[in-house]
Amino acid sequence: MSRSGKLSDVINESLEDYFKHLDGQPPHAIYDMVLGCIEKPMLEFILNKVGGNQSKAAEILGLNRNTLRKKMAQYGLS
Question: Quick check: 55 and 65 in contact, CB under 8 A?
Fold first, then answer.
């Protein structure tokens, strides 16, 4: 199985768990919830891998450096 397949499995399992524990409440803002759960640790991991070099991190992530900085500020990583 590919690495992305394993990540997909973890996301699917997490969403199943989320829906299982709604306790009658309607699901809400799932897109933002999932992105928030994934994006911050991904940014932290990549920034750590490149020793904090934002240009390298942006390149690896496929982001513009300004977009990376915006996301870092959003998650308190600046």
Answer: yes
pTM of this structure: 0.78
pLDDT for 37-49, tens place per residue?
999 999 999 999 9
Q: Where are the domains of the chain?
A: 52-78
Contacts (Cβ under 8 Å, ≥6 apart) of 61: 42, 43, 46, 68
What are the pLDDT digits (tens) for 7-48? 899 999 999 999 999 998 999 999 999 998 999 999 999 999
| Whole-number Å distance between alpha carbons of 78 and 8 | 29
Burial of 33 (0-12, 13-18, 19+ CB in 10 A): middle
Q: 13 and 20 in contact (C-beta within 8 Å)?
A: no
Helix ranges (DSSP H) in 1-78: 3-20, 30-49, 54-61, 65-74
